[in-house]
Amino acid sequence: MLRRIVTTTSTILAAGLCLLVPTAEAGTLPPPAADMPSTTARGSQTAVFAGGCFWGVEAVFRHVKGVSSAVSGYAGGVAKTASYDLVSSGGTGHAESVQVTYDPAQVSYGQLLTVFFSVAHDPTQLNRQGPDHGTQYRSALFVTGEDQGRVARAYIAQLDQAKAFSSRIVTEVVPLTAFYSAEPYHQNYAALHPTQPYIAINDLPKVAHLKEQFPNLYVQN
After folding, report:
1. Is 18 designated active site?
2. Catalytic residue among 12, 53, 140, 190
């Protein structure tokens, strides 16, 4: 049984569960001052983002121009514990994550970061996102090289210095050791279950915010 399924929308609202959206004012996040030029990367590149439940993060990136795939999975732990039941315990070291494959000629890593911090999750929540609690829901950037790490750390510092959020960003920047795809039923979950209350309340607004705030990056699938 999926731990996030709630039977009715009214049940969620009665519990006072909040929408998973950042606390920055809409459209106010600046782009990264430092980015990875498209000329430094050839062919498809990958980036791994963790920001709470992977359903919503995946749903956002599936609608970003230049992204060829977004896969829900696990990062931060080892292979033998990379399963939904074990990760849900919060003791595996894994975070629910999304591996994004993208064309740097169409969208830069810095632009993906802007989307991540603007609409995909709230980077000021420590080890939780809205109704979901535990280290498996932590905010993290699993970087695949020095360039990604440099850009990610610089952007976090830039946003904190600009006081873009009401609290400091708690997003971890750590090297990616491995990414493990989640079980097939988790893939493209939001698009396949748009009327499920958890999706309708927590995840579909993220896609709507992406379309509103980043019309030049948004693509309709």
Report:
1. no
2. 53
